[in-house]
Amino acid sequence: MGKEQEMDIKQMKKFPIVAVLLPGAFLAILNQTLLAPAIPVFMDSFNITENIAQWVMTIFMLVNGIMIPITAFLIETFTTRRLFLFAMSLFALGTAVCAISLNFPMLMTGRVIQAAGAGIMMPLMMTVFMLIFPIEKRGTAMGTVGLVIGFAPAIGPTLSGWLLEHFQWQSLFYVVFPLTIIDIIIAYFVMKNVTKRTYPKVDILSIILSTLGFGGLLYGFSSAGNLGWSNPVVLLSIVIGIATLTIFIKRQFKLEQPILEFRVFQNRIFTLMTIIGMVAFLGLISAETILPIYMQTMAGYSPLETGLVLLPGALLMGFMSPINGRIFDRYGARVLVITGLSLLTVTSFLYTQLTASTSLTYLTVVFAIRMFGISMVMMPSTTAGLNQLPNRLIAHGTAMNNTMRQVSASIGTGILVTIMTSTALSTGTTAEPSELIRGVNVTFYVSTALTIFALGLALLVRRTKPDKGIPAVQGKG
Q1: What value does the mean pLDDT take over residues 166-186?
Q2: Could you tell me the pTM of the whole model?
């Protein structure tokens, strides 16, 4: 990035840019959780099974995971303003298609279009934030991003439940659509160009390999819970994913202008912080997946009670993110990450003692402390890692970071659900709750081991406080 552009960014009014990026990202993340309570409604409306209806959630994550790896290429090809307007317009179009859907295939088409726009949003926002804020204020800025990530999943199921109780399922999209249009209109007037265009060559083969690689892995592992690990579709998807991903990675090292720059992993702190962030994100997603299964099918709690257990923790995570950002700017990531992973380890262990009579209070308090710990790890680890990269590699760093999180959540949750079912003393309709719960407890023992591993990595990182003199990773941009 040239000195002239750096001067322009310093003089740029940041508030209008933040004011359009945050709502866009909020709506994108909200849509990942908004439809979860609507799955039974879709089953009745379209006369489909639960496994088929679940695809309204799975397809969103799958397309997200496919889009994220190519966002670095898109950011370097298009202006910030044009790419943001394109992403949000795509998201709005998908929302409109969903709202007027006459059948399930049409609804799925809308979700694919939605997810394509949403997949661009998060890496774009993180890249812009890293560029418009000086290094000593990035913690606070990324803490604000954490607030969005925390609040959106917390509000999603609650808002969805209320809308479904009073209106038709189409209302889920009618609420989101006008907010998206308003954000697009405001962005048209206030959004500025921040990222530098390097016009990388379009390598069609890399895009195809990336799509097959990440798509195959995400589909295979996310489908394993429903179809089983021995299912030919699951096995074939994973094999194709691993094979094409291997070819994709090797190809990126040979290209002068790679679609996704794997050389960012040459920086030790970026690599360690990315792994730590993956473990934290897996801790977030796995608990939000496994706890509802335990509460509703093994402990006899209602969906509403499940939502109430998860809500305080999600709100606490959102509330704490900006505060943790300020702490990061002052003291660096190390103290936050070590404290957060310690809390995550303790709460994972506390969930290894679940029974059929575990109280709602216990579940709620432990989950809240868990989310408090995750808030200390997620954004601080991301920011500390990205701070090690030069500006020209930040788009690749954010794309890589988001991709690795998606992959870890998909693969990790698939494996943990398998551990839960395979280690239960008994399964099926005749199984006692205590026999099923053993599998849940074993799963959280595995989670405890993972967080101890991440804590060990965090102790290896000696310097994470933002420092303008940090040596940056070298490599072709």
Answers
A1: 90
A2: 0.75
